[in-house]
Amino acid sequence: MTASGPIRRHVLVVDDSGPARLLVRQALEGWARRTGHKVDVVEAENGFEALRELPRSPIDLVLTDVNMPTLSGLELIRMIRSRPEQSALPVIAVSTERDAEDAARARKAGADGYLGKPFDVETFDRVLGEVLGSKAPEEP
Amino acid sequence: MTRPKRPGDASSGEFLAEAEMLLEEAGCGIDALDAEGDDPRPEKVNALFRTVHSLKGVAGMVGYSGIADAAHALEALLDDLRMGRVPPSPAVRGGVRDGLDALSTLVARVAAGEESPRLETPLKDRLEGLVRPAEPREAASLRLPPELDASLSDYERHRASEAGKRGKALVLVDLDLDFDSFDAGLRNAMNEASAAGELIGTFPGTAADPARMAFRLLVALPPGSDVAALATRCSARDVVGVSAGTAAPEPATEPVRLPATVVAEPAPPEPGPEAAPQVARGVVRVPLEKVAALVDLAGELALARSALGRTLGQALAGAPDRGARFEAQRAFARLDRLVATLGPAALALRLVPVETLTTRLARAFARTAAALGREADFVVQGVETEIDKVLADELGDPLLHILRNALDHGIESPEERAAAGKPRRGRVALTVAPRGREVVLTFSDDGRGVDAAGIVAKARQTGLLGPSDPDPAEPFALLFRAGFSTAREVSEISGRGVGLDVVREKLTALGGRVSVRSVPGSGTTFEVVVPMTLVLLESLVVRVGDVWFALPGENVRRTLQAAEGAIEVIDGRPCFRDGDEALPLARLDALFDLPRRPDAGGAEPVVVTEDGRRAAALVVDAVEGVWDLLVKPLADSVPRPREIAGAAEVPGGEIALALDAGALVARVHSASASGRRA
Amino acid sequence: MSDDGLLLAFRAGGERFAVPLERVREAARPRRIAPLPGAPPEWSGVALVRGEALGVIDVAAAMGLPRSPAKPAPLVVVLYGTDHALLVDSIDGVETCPADRVAPPPPGRGALRGIVAEESGFLSLLDVDRLAAKGEG
Question: Is the ipTM of this complex over 0.85?
Answer without folding.
Answer: yes
